[in-house]
## 1
Amino acid sequence: MSQILLEIEGLDKRFGGLHAVKQLSLRVAKGEIVGILGPNGAGKTTFFNLLTQFISPDAGRIEFKGQSLRGLKPHRVVALGIARTFQLCRPFPGLSVLENVLVGSLGPRVHHTDLVERAKHLLEQVGLASKADTAAELLSYGDQRRLEIARALATEPELLLLDEPFAGLGSAEIEAISALIRKLHAEKQLTILLIEHKLREFMQLVSRVIVLDFGEQIADGTPQQVVENPRVIEAYIGKQGTTP
Ligand SMILES: Nc1ncnc2c1ncn2[C@@H]1O[C@H](COP(=O)(O)OP(=O)(O)OP(=O)(O)O)[C@@H](O)[C@H]1O
Ligand SMILES: [Mg+2]
């Protein structure tokens, strides 16, 4: 069995009366691209927030490379090698594209002597080299998604969490970001957790899919197994009138 990078057991979170994440257990091996699927409000972003300690779980074990993440500050989680992008892009306003990436480079994992050179290299990798001096808030939505990814990569992660990287993008941009994710996975041996609703590209990217519904894991399998799973079909038809 390949090396387990992330191990989660019995993860649980309530917001008052709302049980947002229910006894979630999963393992992710090094080098996997795992998709997280589920209808709106299923608990996908909450799962990322719990994993990165943006919010505290009520119960459960979260281990990354054998080390518990429970109780750590989010910046300590980043220092251990987990980076994320956000469902809504949040570039630092008033900073250039290059400066946004530099901010991500300031953590303890980065030992490069020339941080500006490294940031420029990251911008090249995500296709933003020509916009290094542009104010981040002036970028198009697609370019803001690229910047989010560059900023996450700047922290030198081993595990990258992408929360709807295709949201708000047209089909050409979705294809471009999809190719970028595939390239980063291959070149940097990154392990990736990917939340998405845009299923065509999603299913081609991921090797495994975990499906959440009302905070509960209802499926874990290959893309093919998951789309044929009766519980998954019911979750989608019941709420959205469409199958995944
Ligand atoms: N901080 C919070 N306080 C109270 N309720 C919250 C909080 N964060 C999320 N929720 C609720 O928890 C549930 C799960 O939300 P979450 O954002 O994780 O869903 P999601 O699967 O990411 O949905 P989407 O696909 O729409 O992004 C929702 O009902 C949401 O309203
Ligand atoms: Mg979400």
Note: The chain has two domains: 4-81+157-240, 93-156.
## 2
Amino acid sequence: MKCHGIPAPKKYPRVLDALVETVLSQNTSDSNSHRAYLSLRKRFPGWRAAAAARPRAIEAAIRTGGLAQIKSLRISKLLNLIARERKLISLEYLKKLSPERAYHKLLSYDGVGPKTAACTLLFGAGMPVFPVDTHVYRVCQRLGWAAPKESAENFQERVGLFIPPEQVFNLHVNLIAHGRQTCHPRRPDCGRCCLNIQCKYPHYSKSKNI
Ligand code: SF4
């Protein structure tokens, strides 16, 4: 997507950092979830201390991120599960697996769905796994890339097979930017859209409230 240029790289030092911030990003804005993540890291600089803490202490640290009670339980459970399974509270071992195996391993953790698993691997492990979030799904449905009744999960797993690995990061980040800046949920700005010609969606105009 030339209209959005080449996005700046966004990488986490460790895979687990990316997983926790992705859990925090569920159903809230990036700015809220990032604030909650920074507050959590300030309160618990090491994951072992967070795993040993009561979920209420995690909840207090992530309150600004929304759904703090649910997310604190989810994070506490994940950290303890990883600690029991691996001894070390770390997911760095996933980098040694194939993207497919790493993806399915993450999906086996309670509270980790397809989008969370894909974001964790893309941003935390630099693996070419394509996450389909609400913006990506909406834009791709309108473009006709996703079938009308295809679920976001199905689309994510299907489309991921066709994207050249070196394009996955840029395409994901640019589709999100496109969904936020142009292809809005209610009033897409089709007149100024760089994908206008190839789009299957009935273009929005001021006379038609599509
Ligand atoms: S033409 Fe309109 S509906 Fe299609 S991708 Fe662009 S903004 Fe979205």
Note: The domain at 15-124 is CATH 1.10.340.30 (Endonuclease III; domain 1).
